Each structure stands twice: as C-alpha cells, then as structure tokens.
Task: inverse folding
C-alpha cells in the first residue's frame, strides 16, 4: 500500500503577526515555522497505514528550499522518501496552480492513497486535497476523523455540522485529515538523524511538464490588515450576585441576545 | 454572463443558503448580471417560497431521492455542467463543511481559483472578497481575476436580507446518470438538544480554569440554560477532558456567534483566532490580568464555580 502525504510549512499557531509597510502581506522574518498541524495527522495516518499494510510513504511539499526542514520532520516521523517542488515562480502560485503541481507529482508516484491536512493554517485555503483528487479523477473524502482499510475500500468518518457521516471510499482516493484521527508521534533523536539519510528529491515545474506562467494565481491580494474590532472592555463591579445581575441586564436589554 | 448561487440543504434549505443568496443578490445588482440558483436535494417543495425577494430569476432544481445527501460523485458534475450551460461568470457558495468540499471540487473541475470561507464579497469591476487568513489574525482583501470567479461564504456572518416578494421560477431538472463511487453508509445526527458550534447564535466555552473534566458540567449547565453550543479551549481538548469537536481556536472551530461566553479561558492568541469575530464577548476569569479581558465587551473577575451557577439561574429567570 503506497501512500503520498501532502504537507505545508506554516507559521506556528502562537505567532503574532505584523503587516508589512506595503500592506500587501505579513512580515514573516521573525516567525517560527512548523508543519501545519493537520498535516502532522496526515503523516501519522500514512505511517500507521504502512505499519499495518506495508508499502511506502512519500511526503511531498511545494515551496522554497527552507521547506526541506519540514520534509525532514515527516521523514523522521516515519515517511520513506520526500519530494520538494521548488524553483523560480514558486511564490506566484494560487491554490489552483499549487494543486496542479502537487497532482503532477501524485500522478508520477501513482499511490493508492493520498493524505493531506484538511487545511493549512496560514492561508486557510481549505481546497488542495479536494482539488488534487478532482484533477486525478479520484474519489475523495474531507475532514476525516477515522480511517480504516479493507481490501481496496476505505471506511472513513467525516464530521459535518451537527452530525457524522460514515463513507465507503474506493481507492485510489484522497483523504483530508482532521484532529482526532490519531495522535502524532513526535520524532525521537535517532529517527531525526536517520531522516537525514533518506532520499529527498527536488523537482522544478519543468520536471513536471508545467510552467510557472500557467500556474500563476488569478486571485490577487489588494490589502492585508490586522482585524480591528472595538470592544467595550467593561469590567462589571460589585459582589458576584451584583455582577451576574448586571451581566444578564446588559445581555437582555442592551445587546438583546437573551 | 450571470451569477449562480449554490443553495445548500440538509433535508431543508440551510440558513447558509439564504445568506449566500443575499450576498449573490448584492453582486447581481451591482454588476447588472442575471442571478440564478441551483438546488440539489430530495425535494425543494414548499421551501421555494423562502427563495423569494433575492431577485433570483430561475432556480434549477435537481430533485431526487438519491440526491438527499451530499455526494461528490453526484453533486460536482451537476454544478460544473450547469455553470457551463448558463455561462455563469460568478459563483457564490457556502463555506459549511460540505459546501467547502463542493466548492473546492467544482473549482478544480472548472480549472478556476476559489476564495474559500470569505466573510464578505462585493462587486467593483469584478469580484472582490474579504478573506480571513491565519485563522482571522489577519484579514486579506482579494480581487478574483478568474472566470468564473468563485467565492464560498462563511456561514453565520451575513444577515439575510430580502427586497420585495418576487419569487423565482422553479425549473425542474433531471438527475443526470452518474456512477456513485463513494457510498454513504451512515449519517448520524448529533444528540438532540445539542447546538452546533459553527452555526450557534450563542457559544459558551470552558477553559483550563475548570480544573478537570468532572467540573465541565458547571459550564455546560450555563450553555444549556442559554440555549448555547458548548465549546472548549485547546488546553481542555488536549488534556483529553472533552472531544476535539468542541475546540474553538486556530486548530479547532472558528465561530462568530452573537454572544461568546469564555469561562476560565485565559485567551491565548490561538484561541482568540477562533472567536474574535463574535459580536459580543463575555469573559469570566479569576485572573484580572488574563488576556481575555483585553478582547471582551463585558468581564467578570471572579471564580467561575461561583459565577457560572449564579448566571445559570439568572439566565433561566430572565428567559422565563
């Protein structure tokens, strides 16, 4: 059972952001980067699948050379090989182009299963796994909290608002992972050392038969800003009973929400 | 050249469908484009009356017992084919769990970009959208230069607005024959009486301040009294006190209720990311220095074990 895992390197979720002077993006110079948390679940699920079904785990990302560092993390978690799509024009892609480049690698690798986090916690695009599946003509299921495999059919649970769907999905297929599907095992030192000896291949758009111009984003950022919302910051006074009475009063009379 | 709105249903039309229709109506008006809608489900029947007043010309209704539940295999080709048939140049969908899946899949099939989970969109010589990134810590204004231009709209942030009573014509469509590869084995509804976090008008959340899983009922009772969904901070989820589906924050749910009540939550930046767009924020915490007080509208510095039961009773009284 061969699987491919799609990951992304993103700013740590504890990051505090500042906007650049041109108001066109965030200042990333002082941020700490991690593997997107949902992608950790994707890597772990592929490693778990290999433990029971055998095969190979190939981890893939697209981005600048710095992204190798997170591929190494995935290799230390148990992936066997890594592919980095990088080179000129890498920054100019939108979700459409990123999905096309990733799908090209998946097509070459021809796995039975693809795992990817349900969304990357930087741009919160929430569309790459579905796009890759559709580009390949494969089945897919999103926001998976349970994955099991019998033969060439996966049974998965998928959360929706106020409910849970259980789906049977024939392979090959793409699954996007949600927290709760597993507990990622963070790599131990010996595995981190071993990861450095595992194969890590770089590919350019040309290697994949693509051009940056064809993949370029057709959504442009016109402005980025920090959300500003005026808050009342009103601390209620008095003893507990008085504070509670005052709160119920404002919620009912002023805010009209009770 | 027209606008197409994707009407989401789960048995009945979802509020998010009417929110998307409201946003699409504004786009149609500003651009002068015709507005149409697509419904895929078991039966639109008498709910068609809810679609009056948005200026929708035609609702393309694909009604079939096999279309009651969402299916990539069935829904995606229907929408793609209809977009091409109508020559739709703007597509507005819902960024609900299933709406996001549909929009991402349709965008891929059409080979176009998609702004997923926008909180607003508008027409200004083209489609523009307001899209929170980094879980809302940063807000991005974007222009969509693709055709069709596609946006999915976050539920619960657009006030439904109708203008007049004009009802659209309902055009019945045959369900195209497709092979359903993925099989829905079971659709379990959450226990009755529970309110979903992302669609809730009120959310009451518990943080590390509750001390342990045995104390969660103190906060949950308040949620029940307020008719609220019950949320939790990451600390509570990571400690294993409650299922992750309750988590509010950057790696949990992003909520925008009318009122958010944070009980024993310090207000870590990744938690703020999940609730900062709430209309009114109430904080209950015994630490007056807690970050949550910097972003709240009303704060009570006090012990939640004393405040929550008092508040529960007071709310019950106030609601009669």
Result:
């Amino acid at each position: 059972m061969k699987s491919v895992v799609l990951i992304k390197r993103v700013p740590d979720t504890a990051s505090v952001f500042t906007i650049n002077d041109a108001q066109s993006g965030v200042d990333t110079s002082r941020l700490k980067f991690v593997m997107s948390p949902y992608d950790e679940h994707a890597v772990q699920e592929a490693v778990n699948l290999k433990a029971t079904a055998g095969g190979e785990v190939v981890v893939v990302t697209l981005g600048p050379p710095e992204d190798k560092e997170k591929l190494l993390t995935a290799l230390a978690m148990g992936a066997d090989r890594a592919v980095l799509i990088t080179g000129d024009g890498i920054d100019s892609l939108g979700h459409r182009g990123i999905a096309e480049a990733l799908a090209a690698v998946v097509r070459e690798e021809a796995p039975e299963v693809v795992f990817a986090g349900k969304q990357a916690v930087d741009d919160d695009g929430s569309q790459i796994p579905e796009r890759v599946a559709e580009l390949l003509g494969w089945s897919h299921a999103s926001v998976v909290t349970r994955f099991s495999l019998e033969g060439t059919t996966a049974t998965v649970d998928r959360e929706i608002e106020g409910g849970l769907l259980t789906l049977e999905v024939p392979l090959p297929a793409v699954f996007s992972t949600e927290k709760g599907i597993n507990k990622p095992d963070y790599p131990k030192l010996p595995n981190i050392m071993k990861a450095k000896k595992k194969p890590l291949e770089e590919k350019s758009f040309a290697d994949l038969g693509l051009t940056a111009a064809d993949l370029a984003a057709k959504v442009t950022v016109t402005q980025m800003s920090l959300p500003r919302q005026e808050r009342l910051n009103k601390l209620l006074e008095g003893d507990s009973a008085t504070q509670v009475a005052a709160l119920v009063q404002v919620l009912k009379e002023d805010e009209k929400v009770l | 050249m027209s606008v197409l709105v994707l009407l989401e249903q789960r048995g009945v039309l979802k509020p998010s469908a009417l929110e998307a229709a409201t946003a699409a109506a504004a786009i149609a008006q500003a651009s002068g484009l015709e507005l149409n809608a697509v419904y895929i489900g078991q039966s639109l029947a008498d709910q068609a009356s809810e679609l009056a007043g948005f200026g929708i010309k035609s609702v393309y209704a694909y009604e079939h017992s096999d279309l009651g539940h969402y299916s990539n295999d069935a829904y995606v080709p229907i929408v793609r084919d209809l977009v091409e048939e109508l020559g739709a140049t703007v597509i507005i969908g819902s960024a609900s769990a299933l709406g996001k899946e549909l929009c991402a899949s349709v965008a891929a099939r059409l080979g176009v970009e998609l702004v997923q989970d926008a909180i607003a969109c508008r027409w200004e010589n083209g489609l523009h959208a307001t899209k929170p990134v980094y879980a809302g810590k940063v807000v991005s204004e974007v222009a969509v230069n693709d055709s069709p231009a596609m946006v999915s709209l976050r539920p619960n942030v657009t006030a439904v607005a109708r203008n007049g009573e004009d009802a659209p014509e309902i055009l019945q469509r045959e369900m195209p024959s497709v092979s359903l590869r993925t099989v829905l084995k079971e659709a379990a509804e959450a226990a009755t009486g529970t309110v979903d976090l992302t669609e809730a008008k009120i959310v009451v959340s518990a943080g590390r301040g509750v001390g342990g899983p045995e104390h969660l009922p103190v906060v949950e009772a308040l949620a029940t009294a307020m008719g609220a969904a019950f949320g939790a901070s990451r600390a509570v989820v990571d400690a294993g006190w409650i299922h992750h589906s309750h988590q509010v924050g950057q790696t949990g749910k992003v909520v925008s209720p009318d009122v958010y009540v944070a009980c024993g939550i310090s207000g870590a930046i990744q938690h703020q990311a999940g609730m900062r767009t709430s209309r009114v924020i109430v904080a209950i915490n015994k630490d007056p220095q807690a970050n949550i007080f910097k972003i709240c509208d009303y704060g009570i510095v006090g012990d939640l074990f004393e405040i929550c039961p008092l508040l529960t009773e007071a709310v019950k009284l106030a609601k009669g």
Notes: The mean pLDDT of chain A is 95. Chain A touches chain B through 79 residues (CB under 8 Å).
